[in-house]
Amino acid sequence: MEKLIKNLQTEELNTKENWEKEQKEFDLMILERTENLKNQREKEVADYKYELDTTYKIEADQFTEKRKNLERELKDIDFKKNKDWNNRENFLTQNNAKLNEYKTKIDNADNEIQEATKKAREEAIKNASREAKIRSELWEKEMDGTKQVYELQIQTLENSIEKHTTQIEKLQIELKEALTQVQSLSVKAMK
Q1: Residue-wise pLDDT tens digits, 69-126
Q2: Which of 22, 144, 161, 164 is deepest in the core (most CB within 10 A)?
Q3: Domain residue spans in the chain?
Q4: Residues in contact with 12: Cβ distance below 8 Å, sequence separation at least 6, in sequence order
Q5: What's CA 81's distance to the chain center, in Å?
Q6: What is the tens place of the pLDDT at every residue in 35-82?
């Protein structure tokens, strides 16, 4: 009888040790899986951020190039306008004798022509500047919208990671509770 009790106690002790060993191995496996999942998610977020930054830099470089081209076009337009204006002034200087001859007849008309020419020149420069500014503002707004979309996507990924982590922790707690109950029932059953 004593031998039977001793055998049962030894078997119970061995069973308990096996359960503890299995529990430790299971806890270690869960910890490793959780760590691997966390590392994988962090890598995905880092890769996504890198891709976003690269895309944003490329688009920013393209925008800078477009802006430089527009500025160059504006300078060309301004240069041509100034050249035309200088040609007109040279023409007026070369034909000064004729201008003086007809000055009394067309004095008022000449002032109006000069004013209209000046106004047209200023208007052309304003229009070109306005158009370039509008293009620039539209592109900047488009870039801001794209950036906001990418930031929302990153936030969604981070929220998903946090949700999965919470679920894993909850499942670990439930699993530990279930194992504790199984052990408790097994011990009771052995008695």
Answers
A1: 999 998 998 899 988 888 888 877 787 777 677 776 666 666 777 888 899 899 988 9
A2: 161
A3: 2-190
A4: 187, 190
A5: 42
A6: 999 999 999 999 999 999 999 999 999 999 999 999 999 899 889 998
